[in-house]
Amino acid sequence: MLAKHVRRVCHVHCKDVRPQVIRMARNRNWSFLDSVINGAFTVPGDGAVDFKSLLETLRDNAYRGWLVVEAEQDPAVAPSYEYAEKGYRHLSALIGGMA
How high is the pLDDT of residue 72? Predict the structure, then answer.
């Protein structure tokens, strides 16, 4: 999908998912809030999204916009700064490895 529409992308929100929690959320018919509280979403590098491939597609198409680390998480379980930094470090390492 990204490759098909990459020329239209002006900024990217980078959020990861935990497939096992998503499966539970669907099976148990959880609300979005219940899914967040139970850890369905996380920062890049802490879930299943292949950010390396996405970043390569962006690079190969001369993307110059923002990459925003995002995750809806319970801050009591996943401290905001610690997890934001974790996501930033993961994306930075991937980008650094592509140079």
Answer: 83
